Amino acid sequence: MTDRAVRNLGNLRKSASTARVLNLLRVWRDHGDSDGWRQAPLFRNTLLNRALLLKHRLRRDEVDRFRVRRTVATKIILPIDDGDLRVGGRYVFVNQIGFDRILEESFGMSPGHPDRRILALIDDLPGLDPFLLREQLRRHGHTPDACYFNVSEADLAAMAAFVAAEIAPLVDLSLGPDCDLEASSPVARLTTKIMSNSAGEDMSALGETLLLEPHEYDEGVFCWKGFLYYKWSLQAIAGQIGGVMDSLRRVRPSGRVDAEQMAAISRARDNVRRRILLTCEATAGMLRVYDSAFQGLAAEGRPMAFRDFLKDAPVLFSRLGERLGALQHIVSFWTYRMAPGRPAPDADELIDILSDFDLSLAGQERPARAALAA
Questions:
Q1: H/E element holding 79?
Q2: Is residue 305 part of a domain?
Q3: 227 in a domain, yes or no?
Q4: Residue 93 forms beta bridges with which residues?
Q5: In which region does residue 211 sit, left (phi positive, over 0), alpha (psi from -120 to 50) or beta (all else)?
Q6: Which pLDDT does position 276 carry in this prediction?
Q7: Does 256 score more than 50 pLDDT?
Q8: What is the mean predicted confidence (pLDDT) over 193-220?
């Protein structure tokens, strides 16, 4: 691995779960002695269950590792030294050419191994957000211990409250006039259905109303849940984006800086700030697509608008996840790196960080309607 990759890997050692990283090595260190970790592992393979998984934006020299065109891949990293991630590690991309052979040679896993299916489910997601990762696995019958998902009860409660406020207009349409008001409020019950893995089955009447095939509706409901989660997540980081933008504008590297380095930093900083703004606009535009479709269903008597949204939801969900994941990565990493008391980065490190941010945002700033053509 390059020096830049080693430095980035070392920065992961204190993190367990983020929008872009799932640090199973950290989970093992923190919970390896617990019954939950031993009895309900994410992966059965010991090596894989202590690896690092990253959602990685492919560089130009990496896209030919795959038979189909893609921009983001799931990278599995096996640290060379569990005690010092700065040493680096060996890595492989999920579903790259020769992936089955590599799994056999490096992990001793045959193509039919159960962990192969779990990797495919994870690879299908645009990011590694703990909430959506848990839901993706759960709806396919896999329920690892809660230690693998950094989702607090407070976050779950906040998400539930947000969903309840969002879907309140749909209660009468979904549950009908015969709902049991004694058990709980209709809004609370519908919220529970949406946030559970049985939403597709429990709300199948809505799918029939929208003339969707069961598989289209099931996938659409999961992506609908994803849109609600991403909308909530964007609200959570919206207030931090401005601070990061301002910090990026003001940051100065430590130590000696030559004219070429300063010019490179200035160009990269301006480009990253511009792309952050455009990506925020594109993300908000995609959420407006959902808002308009839901408004048509719940308030304007146009259910086909929401039907079209659910059919397109998997593509939109993937693009939205990539965009929000890029923004979350920038906010979380920059906040961590520039925390009070930490030394300012030197010129080389600052250029590396800005280059990583620029790569994360590349292509994410396209207008919302372009997502369906991507």
A1: strand 72-79
A2: yes
A3: yes
A4: 75
A5: left
A6: 94
A7: yes
A8: 66
